[in-house]
Amino acid sequence: MNLIEHALKENLKQAVLKAFEIETALEDIVIEVPKLKEHGDYSSNIAMRLSKTLKMNPRIIAQSIIDGLDKNSIENTEIAGAGFINLFLKKDVLTQVITNVLKEDELYGESKTTHPIKYNVEYVSANPTGDLHPGHARGAAIGDALTRIMKKAGFDVTREYYLNDAGNQINNMAKSLQARYLQACGLDIQVPEDGYHGKDLIEIANDLYADIKDLYKETPLEDSLSYFRKVGLEKETEKLSNDLKHFRVEFDVWTSEQSLYDRGLVQKSLDTLIKNGHTYELEGALWLRTTDYGDDKDRVLIKSDGSYTYILPDIAYHLNKKERGYDKLVNLLGADHHGYIARLQAAFMSLGYQREDLMVDIIQMARMIKDGQEFKLSKRTGKAVALKDLIDEAGVDAVRYYFVSKAGDTHMDLDLDMASSKTNDNPVYYAQYAHARMCSILRQAELTECSEFDLITHEKEIDLLKLIADFPQLIQDAAFARQPHIVCLFIQKLAASFHTFYGECTVLHAEDKLRQQRLALVKATQITLRNALSLIGVSAPEKM
User: Fold this and answer.
1) 387: which of 97, 112, 137, 351 fits an S-S bond (Cβ 3.0–4.6 Å)?
2) 34 domain residue, yes or no
3) Cα angle at 337 between 331 and 342, to 5 degrees?
């Protein structure tokens, strides 16, 4: 709820208390914007909700509530239908929003209070073995937008990347880089069949050769492998980080899977599970009794050959996050991890934590469409589409906006032709053009300090004001629901409302006093739209 709605709810609460000596929780008082403007600015069904308790006609209850209202902010009231209370506000109540926005500027929408709970949000976490694909890109856009929104809403948030730098895939990467380096040295050596054959490793190997020449040409393969592992990880991680930064995605913490082993944290988590009595041995393997916590079957922690399964370092990682002081853990995982959620949460509970402290959101894949066909191959490499290709085709703004614009758990198509088009059918262009148009208006006329808004009475002005007033609460709603696409919906509504207002209300050619008041409204709208776009990592151009 916005500040206006909160004040109205408090007013209704006090009126009910005055009339009937009944305490009503604010969340039980429903405030809505009527579909028809002649039914008021806001409406409440509180009288009908109380009729069962009071055993009275709701219209009589409604009248008693109206009699008890503080009328300082209310112009008029009426009882409609079975007992709806329609509320008509004094115009200065709504127009106060303009003053607030102009004063707060970049801070508008930001929570005045900080939530005490510490959140850790992990997203992307791609293996450092190649380019980021569209699935990673969508997870990056949604994760980054979500954390921006949560921070704006007053949440204590840490953004984390989990670097999968242990296991076979890294050994395969190291062997592949080693082979490419030896090829650069002139040796006839093949990349392992299960290795990585991408162009990026050839480039890294050629750079290495230019730097160290034949240093490891004669060295036994096993003796030099650790060097190529180290260099390969450094280069691939650097590439990941740079690609993400170009996509306006950054992290506060990068955690290495290998470091969990090196610091003894994997063994520590294993000891904790055994101590808690959740493990057993069967056929030479060590099992975790995850069925105790809702999993469909128990899971192997240590195989009969003594090797660890991939869930064990994941358990260690989540234990480590809790021990670092985070109250709530949020994981954004690709759709291919859907079946992994139950066993991960069961393992987490086996450590002694509550299920609700580990929240997992699934990010579905997105299909790329170009020229009416699925876009699968990169023009740059001739192989699978990477994040770089998407940015080349449509730009950072468009890719980020489209990926965030739909709920993460829904499939989506990204039409690259539409995303790069300069038409109102493209929601990114539509929103950015609205912002540029506002900036153009403000460049054409000087906005002087304005403290009165008595001429802001047109219904399209009021519609715009109500949307602007909704913005702080919308941020709270999006943060708590972990649904950043809500902000995109708001952006489209605000842009549409502005275009309608500007089409019906003269601004630049209005008489002086009205012009100044409407310019202030335009400025408040511009600030709100810019702040909304920044929450999803999209730029707000001043000229287009």
Assistant:
1) 137
2) yes
3) 75
- Is residue 154 domain-resident? no
CA distance 197 to 215: 23
As a whole-number percent, the residues of the chain with pLDDT over 70 amount to: 99
Regarding whether 523 and 472 lie in a shared domain, the answer is yes
Query: Residue 233: what are its φ and ψ, rounded to 5°?
Result: -65, -45
Question: Quick check: 507 and 519 in contact, CB under 8 A?
Answer: yes
Nearest residue to 472 via CA among 489, 483, 451, 487: 487
Mean pLDDT across 294-308: 95
Distance, CA of 220 to CA of 65 (rounded, Å): 88
Q: Which helix (H) or strand (E) holds 398?
A: helix 396-404
Bridge partners, residue 362, by sequence = 333
- State the average pLDDT over residues 362-379: 86
Q: How many domains does the chain have?
A: 2
CB 209 within 8 A of CB 185: yes
- 480 within domain boundaries: yes
Pairing mode of beta strands 84-89, 74-80: antiparallel
Q: What pLDDT, in 10s, does the model give residues 16-38?
A: 999 999 999 988 899 998 888 88
Give bridge partners of residue 412 from the DSSP assignment: 366
- Same domain assignment for residues 42 and 110: no
Please determine, for residue 451, whether its predicted confidence score (pLDDT) is greater than 90.
no
